[in-house]
Amino acid sequence: MAEAGEDGAYSYKGMSADNIKGLVLALASSIFIGASFIVKKKGLKKAGASGIRADILHFDEDSDDEWDMLLAETKREEESKSKRRNKHRGSVPGHRIIRRGRVEGHERLYHDYFAPNCVYDAFFRRRFRMGRPLFLQIVNGVEQYDPYFVQTTDAIRNLELSSLQKVTATFRILTYGTPADSVDEYVRIGESTAIESLRRFVQAVIAVFGYEYLRPPNNNDIARLLAIGEQRGFSGMLGSIDCMLWKWKNCPTSWQCMYTGHCHEPTLILEAVASQDLWIWHAFFGLPGSLNDINVLERSPVFATLTEGRSPPINYRINGHDYTMRYYLADGIYPNWSTFVKTIPCSQGLKRKHYAAAQESIRKDVERAFGVLQARFAIVRGPARFWDEETLAYIMKACIIMHNMIIEDEGATNDNDFDGSGENPIVQVSHVHTPEFVDFIQTHHQIRSNASHSQLQSDLIEHLWQRYGQ
């Protein structure tokens, strides 16, 4: 019970006024320390959620300056994160935004090449390597296959790149072999977008047009090709075969030894079969340049349909001997198979010299096809700048498909007169079904027969001499 002292101050029993004052001060100090601890704990949790390191939080509770520094640092971190979220909104940090004027670029491109009275109407085929109707056919096919080429609007209702801009940028890279960023100034398309358009375009071309323009010859094609061979003195010939190298500039370092051959630089190999009109009937691409033509042939599916019995047999007669195996003209490195007709090195005698000259002349069809392909699409003539084989294979196949489309569009396949005139009868294509498995081994051995190869070469020597040499 409290009692009043002489000086008017209250005191508890057994406790003096000084003791009471000390007790009050102790309680106030404890309350202040507890409150400081609670505030510090909340600050630690908030700073940890904001990403502030724990080592800057070791401060003295009684230091107001350090506490202010902590609050200021937390506030700066929150403001920095807010700015990053508001600025990028999911895009790549540091990405530069360039106002290229995509709509103006499309209008300029349209008036230059696609308007009714366009500026460069006379230069369209020269710069796009094909006529305008064929180009628009490809654009429409690609646009229907891949929605990426359909013009859309962005988040703020601005028109994005049109299909003409994306396809034109792709054609400039394919036809001129230029880097992807070189088309930005005219087409108004960024480097990364141009590369993405190229990748998607070549895949779309293969998917839409590959079935028609990158296929083996059907029955009508075989009959037409055999008629061409008959007119040129080589009955049973379907074309000529050879390989072409494509330099791979950006070949990965760990693969360069495997892809380096006699050219002393990484290359990729294309095996192709071409006819007189330069149509490429067979394309096998992707093997490393360290291999030769024989190694490529062993891995090639060029005779797959013939071996499996899915190709119709043919019948023709040369110098009194009957044959049922079609063949290709080839150079000296190919093996002595019945499906290859090669030249005679160091030929002696008029007959052999005449045969060698005729074979070497007609075999140049595939060489001319390679030259025209590289002239139309300079990307396959220069060094390849992509890093992966898959993209390079897509590019090569797409260029071959468009090469064949140009040949068909320009009517080169109709320039020959297939009247079947000549000393030998017209070659007939047999439509009798060939067993798939029973004759597989026999056909395989017939293809690799050296005796048939020698007999066919001897008969062709006599046939050409009787028909043209005398």
How helix-rich are the residues, as a percent range? 40-55%
Helix segment tally: 17
Residue fraction in strands? 5-15%
Summing up helix and strand content along with how strands pair, one would put the structural category as alpha+beta
Low-pLDDT parts are: 1-12, 52-57, 413-427
Inertia-based shape: elongated
In short:
It contains 17 helices and ten strands. It is of the alpha+beta class and 470 residues long. The N terminus is likely disordered.
Could you explain how this protein is built, in words?
With 470 residues, the protein is an alpha+beta fold. It is built from 17 helices and ten strands. The strands form three sheets. A five-stranded mixed beta sheet has the order 5-4-3-8-9, with helices on both faces. It has a three-stranded antiparallel beta sheet with strand order 7-6-10. Strands 1-2 form a two-stranded antiparallel sheet. The longest helix is centred in the first third of the chain and has 34 residues, at 17-50. The radius of gyration is 40 Å and the shape is elongated. The N and C termini lie far apart (150 Å).
